[in-house]
Write a structure and sequence with these properties.
Oligomer: heterooctamer
Structural class of chain A: alpha+beta
Order of helices and strands of chain A: EHEEHHE
Largest interface: C-E, 69 and 69 residues
Number of helices of chain B: 6
Number of strands of chain A: 4
Helix content of chain B: 40-55%
Order of helices and strands of chain B: EHEEEHEEHHHH
Distance between the termini of chain A: 13 Å
Chains: A alpha+beta, B alpha/beta, C alpha/beta, D alpha/beta
CATH topology of chain A: Alpha-Beta Plaits
Helix content of chain A: 10-25%
Radius of gyration of chain B: 15 Å
CATH architecture of chain A: 2-Layer Sandwich
Number of domains of chain A: 1
Largest sheet of chain A: 2 strands, antiparallel
Bound molecules: thiamine diphosphate, iron/sulfur cluster, magnesium ion
Radius of gyration of chain A: 12 Å
């Protein structure tokens, strides 16, 4: 069941705290500046696959730039 | 001699540094100069602007409504300040980042200078500001490129003196570019 | 030490104070003057002096009271809101005839306001923002060089009269950089030893008391009259002003500090247009240069007063020359509201014609 | 059988949908979020009055969707006292920095706590005067280099870092006093709980509630946000131990 | 409630405030005004209000800021040194357009000075002792009855303009007892609901913010101009003064508060001697009754200004009528220095002849 | 063999030969004498700088034969700090009342102690504002009737009596903090010792020294001096326990 | 009607009390009055003085330079204030404590009244102030002894009403003494 | 051997604290006012005989009005 995070590039200031917080180190920093002149955090498609939705990254994000979703079974 | 110049860009482009360098060099050459930075509540990031007023007699107002010259390093500065330049004045536009060629004003002398590209050519993206300054002094003749280089040597701590040649090169590149492009007209 | 430096106005104040023998500084951070405590915290220890970042502006002014009472040259600095908090302490210093230098690098208010330059603290400085109808010496530098020079003068005047002295600057003069020529401080030879102060290693016989409490019949009245007599002497002897092209001026522009700098350019531009315009710039705001206004502006000249506020010094100008026509042009301070020479020039032309 | 996405972490209602002016990695942002989550938790967003102090957190009204009074530097507890006495039914909190609360505002915080005012005080301790450019704060650590302690804080002349959570716990009016940090997810969760409890204490009329949150100032510390965050664990927590210093709410 | 009471001026202020609906008081003891907190601490709880003896004058003014921001009628009171400490808070209130009443029962300074009556805080009150070039409403009662009446007016004016209001009294008016006729407070019907304030049980939709911080380009300038526009309206509509035998007066005596009381007797005595003397007593010190001076004292009359200080209000008189001859007689305040009617009479005769 | 008279109790040198303005039975007089005796003991009368506060003890210079600076209300510790930094070689003490030190002067006393200024602070706690006519002080006891607490201090709204000796002992800069009384000969002797030690602490450069002395205000308590003295034993000491709260001078 | 009187003694002689009583009674009789006490930093012991100004129109100054009448209860007051009395005015001198008979001034009406002795006769040393007040109103006629007594009844708490008769007696004794001694001259 | 105290009538404010402090209750209050309007403390001749010179009265005197002397043998 797929979990995921969405990083709002416009809110991200590139502090990298989330990269440290992620137990699986799934988050990395972009090499392109965003409109505000920051290198935002990004998560690759394959890393996203492995995201457990644990929210640890979001918890430490000072700019509330990360949304976390968890896949739940419904039948 | 009475000159004033307004320099604007975003933090990190070294706007305040060349402002200081220009004013201090003017003073070292025995003239008067004032340097006035605009600063915000947040002393960080965002836009950076400063005004330098130079004179061989005495500097009156350190602030200027319509500057004689403006050095515009990024698009935002172009938007905000281009219109403010005194008629008959001079605009130096960093065409590497600014698309607007300033043709909206026929009452100005304009030089479009691809400062970022030139900087990379010389070998360091951070040289943008020196290229711009070189171009300006070429236009205004308020001080010479060499005395700018001399001041730089004085103010830079020893350990950074290895950067001096590159900076000197950048100043001259800017000056050269300006000479050629002013000549064109 | 004749080489020309290129420094901020705030740094120049700090340098001038140390050169004048100030060895004790007490302050609290506030924009746009924090360069002063920052510079002094670096340099004063090297001179064997004491720098204290106090818990507040109130503690700072009272540490100043304590240090000055002991005969030392001491200083505090702040900006508008912090200066408001010092008013009780300033009143105590004035009442205790305790010298000392207070720097106000004004920012815009009221309240938290903003951090841009302002001249809206003029009344507070010259009329006495504290209680009790005292006055303090108020000096208004208009350049980095004067920041350096006037702080020395402030210490001398303050010691001479035992009246606190204030440097009234603003964010423009404090934050701008200009050339500075340093020079050695030379103490005026008329400065008496501070035998009123708690000096040395103990009281030599008679008890030294620094106080502002006077309860006996007629004592406080006499004390107040004594203070005001000193103000009268200062009005006689200590007034300073700059006169720019006033001799043939038909329109006398007047302004102090940062607006005077802007006005200087405006006046130059006006002269270039052939207008007979001059500038009268008060350097001492208290004592105020009444005689200068009477000399240059009470024989038919028009006066135009520029301020970075809604009109304060203009009152003193009008009181100095009640029969002259005195116009006022001001901008309320705030971000993006600094007037320009072009703006002042337009006002000059307007009132020149009229 | 399908799986559907459930959002498990989202922006709290009480927080406006606006980017902050804080520097990258500044934990004022984290603390703001936790305060907003507490207001969401109790559903008091429309009742709450926030009292902003003077410091980098001065723009409270820009980020919280609540009524705000802006207090003079250090006086937020007095302003909040006036507001709370008029509206005893409305939750009132102050948000103050260490310069604001532990230096110029010392008398106000101590007497407000001592009166047992029904207030919640959020105290962001970043060991420096952030807004004014990194001068020494009462909480700056021994030896810490700041723009007014160029060779490092010298306790002999500059005094010792003040431990507010401990100091205030000594006052009878204080019902709850705690110190937390937001450097790790675990600490963030604990901090969230503490802030909730501090509001609970007020809502229950138990007394004055104080939460000291260790926070970073990467800009003035001259560190990367990650390095600054590490300093919280390596230097701050050892000097400012986390924990509950008083809990008289039971 | 028409029976005449015999009370202290300080008590009358407290009674008037409570009658005007003041339900929150924050203060700190200081002579000669402590009767005010003492009375209110007794009576306010009975009315369901809140009395707080704060830890300081600074805490008091800021509690006032908090309470007023919430739409309540609230008050603080102190005397000169304590009022100096409130200057930052007053500036914040002015900048935040926060109403509220501040009472200053002046004592003599500067510094600790003494506890006798003084008028030396005039400049501080009317020019703005705090930073930022704001003004506050300043009312000067000269009797116990006016202490009661003007505090009500202060609340109304303060709410109407969202400008803090000060009652500027002194130890004489505060400590003396006179007859007082109480009357019910009636709210003027032009008072708008305080929809700017943090009222009621929560924000109805839009966010309420009380602040003085304005950082956007031009915002603070506009804000300041708005404040000064309100002052201009007050100058139009709110000026109050008392005119005693002015119509045929050749010498216009002017004074406020306690000195006006002394002057009244002096004027009566002068009239008994057949001198054409009258009294112009400003009741609103800000806005100042400029028009009244122009009406009664700009057609050849001489003006004689009495103050219990070394000369402050006289500046405003001279600014109001620059072409008139304005003489000043003052006593510096202090123990045993209260002027007498006989003393004022002598001055009147002197200037009347001259 | 004859016997000759030896004076075993006399007026200390440091005290001027003047009657005080204090009310009958006011123990400011006793405390003044003990401070004078301490200065005699160390022979520092001609070096010492006294900083007077605003309260009934404002006339320090009238009673002590030493140099005096008169500080604004509550600010004596700041004034003393300025003086001591200029004259590190001169003993400096402040003499403050409870309104002065524990209310308006809270920030100054706390930060002066926290800086470990080499000062001696004599704190006369008489649970009221004596000079201004008996209003509530931060130290007024629960239920105590004063001119601003006509029905007695209500801790719920007026807050709790502040225990300064305890509070200041929590600061690292404080070297010595003690509470004494002068209601009995025995307590007077102990108080004398404590005040001497507080000066010794300064002279030895050990740090900030604080002596809280429980004192009477018969006039504003509305009691006879003897009854007031009894109140110290019956009500004050139980709430404000005597003893050494910190001694880091060893 | 315009009257003013200055009362001086030492704390405990009840000076402020009779000042209040006189002013309040004047008001209750429909006239105007102001009461202004002199007070010191120490609100205790020492000298006690107050000034009462009474008028049927309006009270101007609550303070008076040269009072029309002075009631002097102790030697110190005599020393300090006797000379200040307006020429042609009235002085009431408590001869029980004051030796100086005031003969130095021929321009005054004087009554030397042995108030302390009279008080003891009536039976309570504390009645000195009432005797003095009774004498003054007899002289000035500003209010009647009876209305003073009435006011006293109003202001005194029930529990102290038992003292009323004695006070009334003292007021009358003072009045009588004054009548006789004014008559003499 | 005789010990004694001397009470300075001009300094005494009649607070009576010394009367309580004296272990033998040797001090009493005068019935005559002194110049300052106080009833000063006094010690009778016979009581003075019994004074031990213990200084307790002087210790508690707020007005430093009591001097204490002790008789010492000298030979
Ligand atoms: C009376 C007064 N003094 C000083 C200042 C300047 N000032 C603004 S913010 C600040 C302190 C900021 O430090 P802190 O409270 O720790 O907040 P931070 O920015 O670190 O979060 C100061 C001293 C002011 N605005 N008003
Ligand atoms: C700024 C200021 N606020 C208030 C006062 C009035 N005042 C004088 S003494 C005093 C307090 C006296 O109480 P305390 O400090 O306990 O001394 P005590 O008289 O009881 O010995 C006050 C509030 C003042 N002088 N200055
Ligand atoms: S939710 Fe957990 S796993 Fe997923 S990115 Fe964030 S921290 Fe890593
Ligand atoms: S923590 Fe937030 S702001 Fe920092 S990098 Fe990650 S997403 Fe961006
Ligand atoms: S300066 Fe420091 S506290 Fe302020 S926003 Fe930046 S990081 Fe945060
Ligand atoms: S009022 Fe109280 S504290 Fe002041 S002198 Fe009298 S008894 Fe002592
Ligand atoms: S010295 Fe001792 S015995 Fe003698 S009177 Fe004093 S207390 Fe009594
Ligand atoms: S203790 Fe001192 S002042 Fe009091 S009664 Fe005895 S001698 Fe007199
Ligand atoms: Mg901080
Ligand atoms: Mg006290």
């Amino acid at each position: 069941m797929a979990n995921k995070i969405i990083i709002d590039e416009m809110l991200c200031k590139g502090c990298a705290l989330c990269t440290v917080a992620c137990p699986q180190s799934l988050i990395t920093m972009a090499t392109e500046l965003n409109k505000h002149g920051f290198f935002p955090a990004v998560i690759s498609a394959e890393n996203l696959e492995r995201c457990s939705g644990c929210t640890l990254c979001a918890l430490v994000c000072p700019d509330v730039a990360i949304k976390v979703f968890r896949g739940v079974k419904v039948d | 001699m009475n000159h004033d110049v307004f320099i604007a860009g975003f933090g990190g482009q070294g706007v305040l540094l060349i402002g200081n360098l220009l004013a201090y060099t003017t003073i070292l050459e025995g003239n008067q100069a004032s340097y006035f930075p605009a600063y915000g509540v947040e002393k960080r990031g965002g836009a950076a602007t400063c005004t330098i007023v130079m004179s061989d007699t005495s500097v009156g107002s350190p602030v200027v409504g319509a500057p004689e010259a403006a050095l515009l390093l990024n698009p935002l500065s172009m938007e905000k300040y281009y219109s403010k330049i005194r008629s008959g004045g001079f605009a130096l536009i960093n065409s590497s980042l600014i698309d607007d060629d300033g043709s909206s004003r026929a009452d100005l002398q304009r030089v479009l200078i691809p400062a970022n590209d030139m900087a990379l050519e010389i070998g360091d993206a951070r040289l943008v500001n020196m290229i711009i300054l070189g171009a300006y002094v070429e236009y205004s003749k308020v001080v010479s490129v060499d005395s700018l280089a001399a001041t730089l040597k004085e103010v830079l701590p020893e350990r950074n003196h290895r950067f001096l040649p590159m900076n000197h090169k950048a100043l001259e590149a800017g000056a050269l570019f300006c000479r050629q492009n002013l000549a064109k007209k | 030490m004749t080489k020309r430096l290129f420094v901020k106005g705030n740094e120049a104040i700090a340098m001038g104070a140390l050169e004048a023998g100030c060895r004790y500084y007490f302050g609290y951070p506030i924009t746009p003057q924090s360069d002063i405590p920052e510079y002094i915290s670096r340099e004063l220890p090297k001179l064997g002096g004491q720098f204290i970042q106090a818990e507040s502006e109130i503690a700072s002014i009272n540490m100043l009271l304590g240090a000055s009472s002991c005969g030392a040259r001491a200083m505090t600095s702040s900006s508008s809101p912090g200066i408001s908090l010092k008013q009780e302490g300033i009143s105590y210093m004035a009442g205790s005839e305790c010298p000392g230098v207070i720097v106000n690098v004004c920012r815009s208010g009221p309240g938290l306001g903003g951090i841009d330059a302002s001249q809206a603290d003029y009344f507070q400085a010259v009329k006495g923002g504290g209680h009790g109808g005292y006055h303090i010496i108020v000096l208004a530098p208009d350049s980095v060089q004067e920041m350096y020079d006037l702080v020395m003068l402030a210490f001398d005047m303050s010691d001479r009269y035992r009246v606190p002295a204030m440097i009234l600057a603003d964010a423009v003069i404090g934050q701008m950089k200009e050339g500075l020529t340093q020079h050695r401080y030379v103490a005026p030879d008329d400065l008496a030893p501070k035998d009123w102060a708690l000096i040395g290693e103990g009281k030599a016989g008679e008890q030294k008391v620094v106080k502002s409490l006077y309860l006996g019949d007629g004592e406080l009245e006499a004390h107040n009259n004594k203070l005001h007599a000193k103000y009268a002497v200062m009005q006689e002897k200590e007034v300073r002003f700059e006169a720019v092209e006033l001799d043939d001026a038909e329109l006398v522009v007047t302004a102090y500090g940062s607006t005077a700098r802007i006005a200087k350019t405006a006046v130059r531009l006006a002269r270039e247009q052939g207008l007979k315009v001059g500038l009268l710039r008060p350097i001492t705001l208290f004592p105020f240069p009444n005689a200068a206004y009477q000399k240059y502006a009470s024989n038919g000249q028009k006066v135009l007063c520029f301020e970075l506020n809604n009109g304060q010094m203009v009152d003193d100008v009008r009181l100095a020359i009640p029969r002259s026509e005195v116009a006022f042009y001001g901008r309320a301070p705030g971000a993006g509201s600094l007037p320009t020479p072009e703006e002042f020039l337009a006002q000059i032309c307007k009132h020149y014609e009229a | 059988m399908t799986t559907e996405m459930k959002q498990v972490f989202s922006r709290p209602d009480s927080l406006k949908d606006a980017a902050t002016h804080f520097c990258p990695g500044c934990q004022h942002g984290t603390i703001h979020r936790l305060v907003a989550e507490a207001m969401d938790y109790f559903g008091i967003k429309d009742q709450t009055i926030g009292v902003a102090s003077v410091g980098c957190s001065v723009f409270l009204y820009g980020y919280f969707d609540i009524d705000v009074i802006e207090a003079p530097h250090g006086r937020a507890p007095a302003v909040a006292t006036g507001a709370k006495r008029v509206h005893p039914g409305r939750p009132v909190f102050t948000y103050q920095g260490d310069g604001d609360l532990a230096a110029i505002g010392t008398a106000e915080i101590i007497h407000t706590a001592n009166r047992g005012e029904l207030l919640t005080v959020i105290f962001a301790n970043n060991t420096t005067y952030g807004m004014t450019g990194g001068q020494m704060a009462p909480t700056s650590l021994p030896g810490q280099k700041t723009s007014t302690t160029p060779v490092g804080r010298n306790v002999a002349t500059d005094g010792y870092p003040i431990k507010m959570a401990e100091l205030l716990s000594g006052l009878d009016g204080t019902a709850y006093s705690v110190r937390v940090a937001v450097d790790t997810p675990k600490h963030v969760m604990q901090a969230g709980k503490a802030i909730r409890k501090a509001f609970q204490t007020q809502l229950d009329g138990k007394g004055f509630a104080f939460v000291e949150v260790l926070s970073t100032c990467p800009t003035n510390w001259g560190m990367s946000p990650v390095a600054a965050n590490q300093r919280v664990a390596d230097e701050m927590i050892p000097y400012f131990p986390l924990g509950v210093y008083k809990d008289a709410t039971a």
